[in-house]
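Incident review: delayed structure delivery

Summary: a single-chain prediction request sat in the queue longer than the usual turnaround. Root cause was a stuck worker, restarted by the on-call engineer. No data loss occurred. The affected request and its eventual output are reproduced below so the record is complete for anyone auditing the incident later.

Affected input:
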Amino acid sequence: MLSHIYLKDFAIIEKLDLELKSGMTALTGETGAGKSILVDAIGLVLGDRADSGVVRHGADKAEITLSVDLDDTPTALEWLQEQELANEAGEENQCILRRVISSNGKSRAWINGSPCNLTLLRQLGEQLVDIHGQHEHQSLMKKEMQRAMVDDYADNESLRKVVAKKYQDWKSIKTKLENLQGANSDHQARLDLLRFQTQELDELQLRENEAQQLDDEHAKLSNAGQLLEASSQSIMQLYDDDDKSIYSAISGVTHQLESLTQLDSALSEPLELLQNAQIQIQEATDLLRRYNETIGLDPERLHWVNQRLSTLHDLSRKHQTAPEELFAKWQRLHAELQSLDSDEFDIDALQEKLNQAEAAYLEAANKLSDSRKKSGKKLAEGVTNAMQELGMEGGIFAIAVNNAESFNAYGNDHIEFQVSGNPGQPLKPLIKVASGGELSRISLAIQMIAAQRITLPALIFDEVDSGIGGGIAEVVGQQLRNLGHNRQVLCVTHLPQVASQAHNHYQVSKVKGNNTTSTGMLVLNGEQRVKEVARMMGGLEITESTLNLAKEMLATA
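Output delivered after worker restart:
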């Protein structure tokens, strides 16, 4: 389970040090308070892509540190040991993930103090947490997401890998056979031509993107004097001319505004823009200085580049291709030569291999299909029951697993989620469900049932309860609470019926300071929690009856 998270200068959070508890935890707060920031941070420390926008305004970098207890996750511990990233003996069941995102957009990551890339973070994160977002119903419209959900529910990973391997084997042999059949009549003539063409290009010792690199170098060498003079003048105008530089002018205005902001805070915004401009001018000047150092006058090199470009253009015309495509042409010729000049130039033998590969693929694909049909039926029954509990009485959910017309790496199945919202209505593809409210409930039902089969120690639900309310919301809260009995559940919610069911309750709020706004998080207990649940019920003010109802909701959870 996730045991602790530390955030510094992340989004509008200046600093947050939070212990995460087992069971179901509700995250609530006013609209715009930043309830989903914690979820975003967990996603980033587990390998999501980031940009400089996550860094708090005015800070150099954002830091996220997540501590994880691996007592109930032996597979994650084994993975860490295989990657040589586990802690020392005695502390191996504790894992600390850290990620730092700089204001320039670059990021670094560590697992237990060892630097790592995002791929490793994602691989570990997939064994620790499953995040369900508030727009999950949109991705459920996609066929590939429907297929992936059925496979995850059926635990089909090993079968999928076998099918993908068998497909690649079949595809490779099929491509060879097709190439062979097309080239059989003039095989030897083609071989002779390929040998001549590749030898000619081999002697040239081509490099990838060489033509573009040479064009760039030629432009730079032939205009070195002009480039050097222009960049030097730019440096002088931007920074080095103490009296007349742009930097000096902006510095003067900045100095003047700094004193005036004490009189009128409205000048703070233009002051900040000018300060940013100073930084950008300094950075631009540094880049220009480094650029100057790369410029050199070298007539001999320019002569060699001219000759090399002339050779490339001559051969490009000969091979009827553009100079920048010559390297790719050479690669294609070599690949074709290797394909034709091999012991496998036997159509009958390849056809037999293709038949065997097709049979092997179909055997693996049929096993995968059988598993999908069996588990798909169970998943559909569970979702149907959940839909009815969520107020869609008579609603039916079905998963159609039909044979596809063509082979692919995912098997030969066409999988489609189908729904009937009311008794007597025919099943329709999920994508054709018109009602947004129905779609939200169906999506939530699918997620809830799928989550029951997920063995990960932590589940995160980010406002998946949008579009529902009343008694249905209470059912959702109860189901989330049940999930929290044997795993950790974090739930961002705006519904009091859901929040009141939680074992733990955190309130997210905005904290305003001098010209700054930050997000704070408070662990609620007792009367604090009663007031927060009452606030979530709405109304201009919290009345005694509202408080009593909040107490009753918490007491009956």
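Verification: The chain has 19 helices and 15 strands.
Action items: add queue-age alerting; document worker restart procedure.
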